[in-house]
Amino acid sequence: MPPYFAPGMECLGKAGNESFMTREPFPTFVEGAIIVGGGPSGLAAAACLKMKGVPSLIIEKSDGIGSLWKYKAYDRLHLHIPKQFCELPYYAFPEDYPLYPDRKQFVDYLENYFQHFDMWAKFNTKVSTASYDPYSSCWKVKTQPSEADSEGERREYRAKWLVVASGENAEPYTPEVEGLKDFRGSVVHSSNYKTGAGYARQRVLVVGCGNSGMEIALDLSNFNAEPSLVVRSPVHILPREIFGTSTFAVAMRMMKSFPLWFTDACLVWYTWAMLGDTTRYGFKRPSDGPMTIKCKQGKTPILDVGTFAKIKSGAIKVCPGLKYVTPDGALFENDQFVKFDAIVLATGYRSNVPQWLKDDSGFFTAEGLPKNHSKGTWKAERGLYIAGLGRKGILGATFDAKYIAEDLSRAYASESHKRLICPLQSR
Ligand SMILES: Cc1cc2nc3c(=O)[nH]c(=O)nc-3n(C[C@H](O)[C@H](O)[C@H](O)COP(=O)(O)OP(=O)(O)OC[C@H]3O[C@@H](n4cnc5c(N)ncnc54)[C@H](O)[C@@H]3O)c2cc1C
Ligand SMILES: NC(=O)C1=CN([C@@H]2O[C@H](COP(=O)(O)OP(=O)(O)OC[C@H]3O[C@@H](n4cnc5c(N)ncnc54)[C@H](OP(=O)(O)O)[C@@H]3O)[C@@H](O)[C@H]2O)C=CC1
Ligand SMILES: O=C(O)C(=O)Cc1c[nH]c2ccccc12
């Protein structure tokens, strides 16, 4: 019996006494792969598959591609590593782009990339569940329209292969902080922060000192606000450039020829020479080096774009961990109380994979990131692939996409004799 007639693939609605009113939608069969997410990782995967002759459908909950860069990033954002490390496969950045393209340029590039490869995508469509159906050996992907699409309907798609590309930064993470909900001023997550323009002369507490918190504190200071930055854990801070060359590029080159510890020692020594003793300003260094931590834990070092100079000058204050927030300020772990007018939570993001992917293979951690697998973080079982969740930035996602296309295209070729070709109803 061909797979499309197998039990479980018939669209007869739910069992039991549920009426036809609650019937499940008819599934649309997708030849090739379904890709969940239309960010850089999903685009890279779709392009690499296409180059290998494998079709795919991107399902994206936002109204277009690159939603993180389009809607969830602040205005002054630039790529913080040089463009050659953020280029997606088979399509170069325009030649006149600067070394560190800005947010708008990167979004334009992603949109052109999508057009260039003439990709298939369903926008305003959120994947609510994806599960493997052993009867049909397919992935069942159920979708619901996003809030912006009032006329959309629930759909079901099926494909032999599923590529998870929903991003490490899928959901803003807001920690439980005592008293936060009673704070009288504005509280925004960094994903909703655009510019410091409305914060002039306000005392703003920026919680979190990853790359977002550091740059938002700088932006606030440039707009004449009075930012304070919570730095609760040891963290590596590196200048973005070493003698005019990107620190990231220097590190990559060194890692090819020298052991990791030596690269780390050089980076830390150089930072000390450039920025001085950062511990004096509240930045304790972890005992492991910056690239060791990136490789082991995926945590990105701070690439400083001018915040540290503002900290040195006193324009940005550094605070230790938060104890609690009051309606008009915050108490810190050193028992100091400071008044604030606004709070920006630059406390990071989480994967949303556990919310929608039903996978019991043990491939993912409870946080929805691949566990450390000896064979890499891009391939699970039963036709499930993962792009951009290996905590290696856009460069890592492009490697994932190439490996995925290589492997998936082989499986696609061997399946081709029994493949069912059902054109999509809409693009
Ligand atoms: C502010 C910021 C700056 C960064 N700068 C850099 C940088 O300079 N260099 C670098 O290498 N990395 C950088 N990163 C890391 C970042 O992970 C990448 O830039 C990149 O966007 C990751 O691409 P992605 O496609 O994996 O994820 P995303 O860009 O997050 O794309 C995932 C897409 O999946 C969609 N999606 C999620 N869940 C669902 C669902 N259930 N159904 C349908 N669609 C869904 C989302 O709407 C989103 O469009 C930065 C991250 C942030 C937050
Ligand atoms: N192109 C660019 O210039 C930029 C790149 N990025 C990238 O985007 C990704 C996300 O970065 P980002 O948004 O900064 O998130 P991160 O996860 O990197 O940083 C989150 C920060 O919040 C802190 N934090 C979390 N909870 C609390 C709490 N309760 N109290 C105090 N501090 C807390 C964390 O501290 P702790 O370590 O103690 O948990 C950490 O310092 C990274 O990969 C980053 O490199 C981001 C911005 C700009
Ligand atoms: O911005 C990010 O989150 C990245 O992951 C980019 C990146 C990958 N490897 C790195 C090593 C040092 C600094 C940034 C990165």
UniProtKB/TrEMBL annotation:
| Keyword Thylakoid recorded | no
Q: Which keywords belong to this entry?
A: FAD, Flavoprotein, Monooxygenase, Oxidoreductase
Q: Does the keyword Oxidoreductase apply?
A: yes
**Cofactor dependency:** FAD
Q: What is its EC number?
A: 1.-.-.-
In Pfam terms, one family for this protein is FMO-like
Q: Which InterPro entries match?
A: Auxin_biosynth/cation_transpt, FAD/NAD-bd_sf, Flavin_mOase-like
Family according to the record: Belongs to the FMO family.
Protein name, as recorded: Flavin-containing monooxygenase
